[in-house]
């Protein structure tokens, strides 16, 4: 009997130890997820909030580096935005001579441009990229100008495109390169801002695609090589890349619970370390998911009434200095993706006094919201009513009223 009781006590002690050990591991796991990633394979990395464009985590995010075939997200979105309905493109001898990875186009062979976009994004074919570029702009050089123009429009001032496929190259303005921040910004445009974002997502999420040349004499099959699509719940899109100069690169996006994150990686290992980019992508995405939630940071700011000089109020005709109520113009909600320890700073600017006449809706100040020193929102402060000027016309009218009384 005593032995049985001892045996039960030993068993229960073991169970409790195991449970406590598991609970401890859970706590450690949660604590680890809360920490910003410190050990990444990529030399440059960014985790971006796709909604606001804010960089949530960066590692050498502004360093110029070659970006290999992640270039093709820009090629794809520009082709979608500039193609003609049912456009047919013709392969040149230059396109046919591009190195692997390639579709194997032949000189003067014709294709529907929309089919080549799947070749571009699923298989990352270098010759298809050139056929697309020449079909849109006439030459690779002219298409590169279009790429650089779009980069400037997006605020990617540290990006320089030379080729539509990302092969290592240079021109008189520099080498084909970008930064992790700029690459994430371009992906943000592709999936959040471009009028062709839905078409972009449809192409890049397609698992398999078959097509033929215009004549139907040759058939081709494409398979999507973006492993991230099956790696994490909510994976939206992505593009891999590799050259000897760039190393392994990746840019991808994920949507989870109304939050959309973008990861951009440059120089994330060289052969035989092809899997490094997936490990870094998962680590950064999990950090974003675990630590960032949307919060309403709107503050109801108490605003004093503003003095109005030389104004007149019918009920107080002898007052020469009046007060006019003001209000913040605009919405009353600001939803931001924030860590628990982050907050905004609110700065109010208001004129000390006004001079009549004052009209309802006159701008008299502003309420500005800042996050980490950067302005994220600004609202005008406006007057809520009119205040008439105490001028000669009003004086004559008032004297007339007094005389009649």
From TrEMBL:
Pathway: Cell wall biogenesis; peptidoglycan biosynthesis
Residues covered by the Peptidase S11 D-Ala-D-Ala carboxypeptidase A C-terminal domain: 298-389
GO molecular function, one term: serine-type D-Ala-D-Ala carboxypeptidase activity
Gene Ontology terms describing biological process: cell wall organization; peptidoglycan biosynthetic process; proteolysis; regulation of cell shape
Active site: 69 (acyl-ester intermediate), 72 (proton acceptor), 124
InterPro entries (UniProt xref): Beta-lactam/transpept-like, Peniciliin-bd_prot_C_sf, Peptidase_S11, Peptidase_S11_C, Peptidase_S11_C_sf, Peptidase_S11_N
Known catalytic reactions: Preferential cleavage: (Ac)2-L-Lys-D-Ala-|-D-Ala. Also transpeptidation of peptidyl-alanyl moieties that are N-acyl substituents of D-alanine
Residues at which substrate binds: 239
Pfam family, one: Peptidase_S11
Keyword annotations of the record: Carboxypeptidase, Cell shape, Cell wall biogenesis/degradation, Hydrolase, Peptidoglycan synthesis, Protease, Signal
Role: Removes C-terminal D-alanyl residues from sugar-peptide cell wall precursors.
Family: Belongs to the peptidase S11 family.
Listed name of the protein: serine-type D-Ala-D-Ala carboxypeptidase
Organism: Sporofaciens musculi
């Amino acid at each position: 009997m005593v032995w049985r009781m001892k045996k039960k006590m030993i068993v229960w002690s073991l169970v409790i130890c195991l449970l406590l050990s598991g609970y401890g591991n859970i706590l450690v796991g949660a604590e680890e997820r809360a920490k910003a990633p410190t050990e990444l394979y990529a030399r440059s990395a960014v985790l971006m909030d796709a909604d606001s464009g804010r960089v949530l985590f960066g590692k050498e995010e502004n360093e110029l580096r070659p970006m290999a075939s992640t270039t093709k997200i820009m090629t794809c979105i520009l082709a979608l935005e500039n193609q003609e309905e049912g456009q047919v493109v013709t392969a040149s001898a230059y396109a046919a001579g591009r190195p692997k990875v390639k579709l194997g186009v032949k000189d003067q062979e014709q294709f529907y441009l929309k089919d080549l976009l799947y070749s571009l994004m699923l298989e990352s074919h270098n010759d298809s990229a050139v056929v697309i570029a020449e079909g849109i702009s006439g030459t690779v050089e002219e298409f590169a100008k279009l790429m650089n123009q779009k980069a400037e429009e997006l605020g990617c001032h540290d990006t320089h495109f030379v080729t539509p496929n990302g092969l290592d190259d240079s021109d008189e303005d520099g080498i084909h390169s970008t930064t992790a921040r700029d690459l994430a910004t371009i992906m943000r445009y592709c999936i959040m801002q471009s009028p062709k974002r839905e078409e972009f997502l449809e192409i890049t999420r397609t698992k398999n695609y078959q097509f033929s040349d215009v004549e139907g004499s040759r058939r081709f099959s494409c398979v999507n090589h973006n492993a991230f699509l099956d790696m994490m719940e909510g994976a939206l899109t992505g593009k891999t890349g590799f050259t000897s100069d760039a190393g392994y690169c990746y840019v991808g996006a994920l949507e989870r619970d109304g939050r959309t994150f973008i990861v951009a990686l440059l120089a994330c290992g060289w052969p035989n370390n092809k899997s490094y980019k997936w490990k870094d992508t998962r680590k950064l995405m999990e950090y974003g998911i675990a630590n960032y939630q949307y919060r309403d940071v709107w503050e109801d700011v108490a605003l004093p009434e503003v003095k109005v000089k030389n104004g007149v109020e019918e009920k107080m005709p002898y007052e020469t200095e009046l007060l006019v109520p003001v209000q913040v113009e605009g919405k009353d909600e600001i939803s931001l993706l924030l860590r628990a320890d982050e907050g905004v700073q609110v700065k109010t600017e208001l004129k000390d006094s006004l001079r009549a006449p004052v009209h309802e809706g006159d701008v008299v100040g502003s309420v500005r919201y800042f996050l980490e020193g950067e302005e994220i929102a600004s609202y005008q402060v406006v007057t809520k009513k009119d205040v008439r000027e105490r001028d000669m016309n009003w004086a004559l009218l008032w004297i007339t009223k007094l005389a009649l009384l």
